[in-house]
Specification:
Chain C: Keywords: Cytoplasm, Exosome. Chain C: It is found in: Cytoplasm; Nucleus, Nucleolus. Chain C: Belongs to the RNase PH family. The complex is a heterotrimer of chains A (252), B (262) and C (247). Chain A is α+β, with helices and mostly antiparallel strands and 252 residues long. Helix content of chain A is 32%, strand content 26%. Chain A has one domain: GHMP Kinase, N-terminal domain (Ribosomal Protein S5, domain 2), CATH 3.30.230.70. Chain B folds into two domains: 109 residues, 2-Layer Sandwich (Ribosomal Protein S5, domain 2), CATH 3.30.230; 150 residues, GHMP Kinase, N-terminal domain (Ribosomal Protein S5, domain 2), CATH 3.30.230. In chain B, the strands form three sheets. A five-stranded mixed sheet of chain B has the order 1-2-3-5-4. Chain B is elongated. Chain C has 247 residues and is α+β, with helices and mostly antiparallel strands. Chain C is built from four helices and nine strands, in the order ββββαβαββαββα. Chain C has a five-stranded mixed sheet with strand order 1-2-3-5-4. In chain C, strands 7-6-8-9 form a four-stranded antiparallel sheet, sandwiched between helices. The longest helix of chain C is centred in the C-terminal third of the chain and has 40 residues. Classes of the chains: A alpha+beta (252), B alpha+beta (262), C alpha+beta (247).
Chain lengths: 252, 262, 247
């Protein structure tokens, strides 16, 4: 018999057992069916990481084949007190990590983080949280795209959508739900129903070289509206379910 | 220089007004005067120094080395050192990554080809002595002029060395000019509905957003992206502003390249 | 490859100088006005060095502050392209560079009137664009010029030069070919005096030859001081005439 076992502290005799909430994770079906050609499907799950203030898990299946998938886990910590000098507004930091295989060069990741923090600097109400820091951690679980080793475009848009969902889950004030749309290697992060751009990324040259920039943005906007709809629908459904559960609890 | 909240607000208002009133009286599509010196480092194949009117200074050296291009994948390597910034700071790493990618993807490998087996590899070292605004534009101008003044040794052995194992031999003193097209990067600041080119540090501090535009071979190419110039005033821009920014570069880039060539 | 003749029987060195001749020395001050409080650009032979002085200014860290006097910090940046062959590593934290920095701080601590600037810091930043032997001496000259440009009070000039010993002949102001083939010392001489504020001996030198080595080194340093002084006076006159013509 183990010696440490005998020394086990059992706690006071009048201790009560912990009871856990019976509600399981909120399930949601993939939003768009794969029967529609040239469309991506998204699976969303919020609040998977318990010790983060907010988190989101995103599974995006590509438009061309089932094999193109991007799996991303986003966690948000904060607003938490920052040390050092007084800051009138919160400071945002974004960090990206590839959990499984490290395929993306380090410099490119730094660029990506710079880009994302610039996007979210514009939409988080940072004045609301003085003397604090908001830390966003992105973990790329899986990304595959047929011929290429990785596809930065779909990763970036997943990052933008993931961070927005995680920020909402954390209850951090944002001016609007940001979401990204892709069209031919162009990624545009929109707010305000597609009238304003908070981020634009064109990493590689595409076939649509001669196309007008405004029409490209218009195409991205369509993708944005679709993505945003999926995200908002999920959030509303979660909310309804929670309300429902709350209702049940109060009835008991 | 650190500006107070009121000063920034005043500056922002004046940049948003129509037409934009820039603190140094420039028009929206006007650059600050720059001075470029080339070929001052005898131990480098090409060198250039660029000084902007605000004291931003950048020195670029291009050195070459003969490598086996079947083994060496990248024929260009860029290194950036910005005084006052650590090597692992986001600014240095971001600049480095953008430059490496732009130069590697745009510059034609064939122009560095020496024989069927060997090529020149270019090492481009960038030293920014002092920078006040986003240094990317100046760095790219400096790289442009350094590479356009680069002289490489002239090959005198045969260029077909697949069958005969022979190392390339060079002429004792004759040099050949390197002829490659080099991409140029521009930063544009968006303030309200206005787009201004070559933002000074005070203008960057109050800009709503920045756009990085690459110009290569007479047209705008990738990467094009938004770029954070500050943390206080950053906000969304309209699609029209983005299009305006690209239009602005399309208008002025040929003139800039012409000026750099002369 | 045939061995280079370092010192020919006729008394000529690889670059055609005699044993007691300096390399070309050109300098200018106030070259980087917006980047620093004092700056200099120095070409000594094929050494090309930019020196920037910032200060006296408030130290970034409270812990670096001294109540009695100013503190000096020296940062040497030897660029990767400074030699013929590009170096694979940056020289930032190399032991040799760190030692040079400490030696320079100690040299100038004794010569700058630090007690005049209590609670401040003087930052010296050096960029070596090209090097060709005798680097330490050139660094000293560059710093002296930049400190003068910054208007920081010093007791006197410090001028530096390296001297090698080839068999029994001392050779003044070595270039990199000579430096790699013989033992050498670097001197820092205070003004027109024969006082040394730095003596750097990294190789073996016979003690009985030391005196002749030092003698030519001191003479060379005095000459360098003269050249720097002439340039500074020229610069001063130019600025004075600009001021008076504006009035």
């Amino acid at each position: 018999m183990n010696i440490s076992d005998r020394r086990r502290i059992l706690g006071p005799s009048n201790a009560k057992l912990l009871t856990f909430d019976k509600s399981g994770p909120v399930e949601i079906e993939p939003i768009s069916s794969s029967s529609v050609p040239n469309s991506t499907s998204m699976y969303i799950e919020n609040g998977l990481i318990c010790n983060a203030n907010g988190s989101s898990y995103l599974e995006v299946t590509g438009s061309t084949s089932e094999a193109d998938r991007t799996l991303m886990l986003t966690s948000v910590y904060g607003p938490r007190p920052s040390r050092g000098a007084f800051n009138a507004k919160a400071t945002l930091s974004v960090q990206f990590k590839e959990v499984t295989l490290e395929k993306i060069p380090a410099g490119e990741l730094k660029e990506l983080c710079n880009f994302l923090s610039n996007v979210f600097n514009a939409v988080i109400n940072l004045e609301r949280y003085p003397k604090s820091g908001i830390d966003v951690f992105l973990s790329l679980i899986h990304s595959s795209n047929g011929s290429q080793l990785y596809e930065l475009e779909s990763i970036i848009s997943t990052c933008v959508n993931g961070i927005t969902l995680a920020l909402i889950d954390a209850g951090i004030e944002i001016f609007d739900t940001v979401s990204a749309g892709i069209y031919e290697k162009h990624i545009v992060a929109f707010v305000k129903n597609g009238t304003e751009i908070v981020g634009f990324w064109k990493g590689k040259d595409s076939a649509s070289e001669s196309e007008d920039i405004l029409s490209i943005i218009e195409q991205c906007k369509l993708d944005y509206l679709k993505n945003r709809k999926a995200m908002v629908e999920y959030l509303v459904r979660c909310n309804d379910k929670e309300d429902h559960l709350q209702h049940e609890v109060t009835k008991q | 220089m650190v500006l107070s909240v009121t000063e920034k607000l005043y500056l922002h208002e004046s940049l948003v007004s129509n037409p934009p009133a820039r603190p140094d009286g420039r028009s929206a599509d006007q650059f600050r005067p720059i001075e470029i010196f080339t070929d001052f480092l005898p131990t480098s194949n090409g060198s250039s120094k660029i000084v902007a009117s605000d004291g931003t200074e950048c020195i670029v050296s291009a050195k070459c080395k003969v490598v086996d291009h079947t083994l060496e994948e990248d024929l260009i390597e860029v290194d950036v050192d910005i005084a006052g910034h650590r090597d692992d700071s986001p600014l240095v790493q971001g600049t480095l990554s953008v430059l490496n990618r732009v130069l590697l993807s745009q510059i034609d490998r064939g122009s560095l080809r020496l024989t069927k087996k060997y090529s020149f590899k270019l090492y481009i070292d960038v030293l920014v002595l002092s920078s006040y605004s986003h240094p990317l534009t100046l760095i790219s101008f400096a790289i442009y002029s350094a590479l356009n003044s680069t002289l490489l040794p002239t090959l005198i052995s045969s260029d077909d060395d697949l069958d005969v194992a022979e190392l390339p031999t060079f002429h004792d003193y004759d040099l050949t000019k390197l002829t490659i097209k080099v991409p140029v990067l521009f930063t544009v600041a968006v303030c309200g509905k206005n787009v201004i080119v070559d933002p000074a540090s005070s203008e960057s501090d109050v800009a709503n957003n920045g756009i990085l535009v690459t110009w290569y071979d007479g047209k705008v190419t990738a990467p094009v992206r938004t770029l954070g110039l500050n943390e206080d005033y950053v906000s969304g821009i309209t699609p029209q502003s983005l299009a305006d920014g690209l239009k602005l570069i399309e208008d002025i880039a040929p003139k800039v390249v012409k000026a750099l060539d002369s | 490859m045939s061995r280079l003749e370092i010192y020919s029987p006729e008394g000529l060195r690889v670059d055609g100088r005699r044993w007691n001749e300096l390399r070309r020395l050109e300098c200018s001050i106030n070259t980087h006005t917006s980047a620093s409080d004092g700056s200099s650009y120095l070409e000594q032979g094929n050494n090309k060095i930019i020196t920037l002085v910032n200060g006296p200014q408030e130290p970034k860290l409270r812990s670096q502050m001294s109540i009695q006097k100013a503190t000096i910090s020296v940062a040497i940046n030897i660029t990767r392209f400074s030699k013929m062959e590009r170096s694979k590593t940056s020289h930032r934290n190399e032991r040799r560079v760190l030692e040079m920095q400490t030696a320079l701080v100690r040299t100038f601590e004794k010569n700058v009137q630090l007690h005049l600037y209590p609670r401040t810091q003087i930052d010296i930043q050096i960029h070596v664009l090209q090097q060709d032997g005798g680097l330490m001496g050139s660094l000293i000259n560059g710093i002296t010029l930049a400190l003068i440009d910054a208007g920081i009070a010093m007791y006197d000039y410090i001028s530096g030069v390296s001297v090698g010993l080839y068999d029994t002949t001392p050779l003044l102001d070595l270039n990199s070919v000579e430096e790699s083939s013989m033992s050498s010392v670097t001197l820092g001489v205070v003004g027109k005096s024969e006082k040394l504020s730095l003596l750097l001996v990294e190789d073996k030198i016979p003690l009985d030859r030391m005196e002749s080595v030092l003698a030519i080194g001191i003479a060379g340093s005095h000459r360098i001081r003269e050249l720097m002084d002439r340039e500074l006076r020229k610069h001063g006159r130019k600025r004075l005439s600009n001021v008076s013509s504006n009035n």
